[in-house]
Design goal:
Number of domains: 1
Number of helices: 4
Order of helices and strands: HEEEEHEEEEEEHH
Mean pLDDT: 88
Strand order of the largest sheet: 3-9-8
CATH class: Mainly Beta
Largest sheet: 3 strands, antiparallel
CATH superfamily: SET domain
Helix content: 10-25%
CATH topology: Beta-clip-like
Strand content: 25-35%
Low-confidence stretches: none
Oligomer: single chain
């Protein structure tokens, strides 16, 4: 696995801050793990927030801490990465869906529920911004 510190960089993106590759990732490569405090679904509902990653019906990762570099991955309607949940160790890993070149922003699809609640109708992903022009 590549080191997060040498292969990824947080910088300005079309939707605020984003996470960018500083080396190439091949399809299927591990990019980063989504980390944070593990809390119950009930606690997540009480706290709210945009960095909550649902693991299952009972468990959520609150990734709001800045040490969680994966929190800077923005949504895209045409993503280059995907989130994979490992039920055995209860971890979320972000993997490359295709070749990602150095300098390219890492993106994944946040899912229909999040999109409908927070993003719609003003999606700022590169695909939507280009289509709107």
């Amino acid at each position: 696995m590549k080191s997060i510190h040498t292969s990824l960089q947080v910088k300005r993106a079309t939707a605020g801050l984003g996470l960018f590759a500083t080396t190439e990732f091949k399809k299927g490569d591990f990019i980063i793990e989504y980390t944070g405090e593990r809390i119950s679904d009930e606690e997540a509902n009480r706290r709210g927030g945009r960095y909550l990653f649902i693991l299952n019906k009972k468990n959520v990762i609150d990734g709001k801490g800045r040490e969680n570099k994966a929190r800077y991955i923005n949504h895209s309607c045409k993503p280059n990465a995907e989130a994979e949940f490992d039920e055995d160790d209860m971890k979320i890993r972000i993997l490359a869906r295709r070749l990602i070149k150095s300098g390219e922003e890492i993106t994944y699809d946040y899912g229909k529920e999040f999109w409908n609640e927070y993003i719609k109708p003003n999606c700022r992903c590169l695909k939507c911004k280009t289509t709107a022009l």
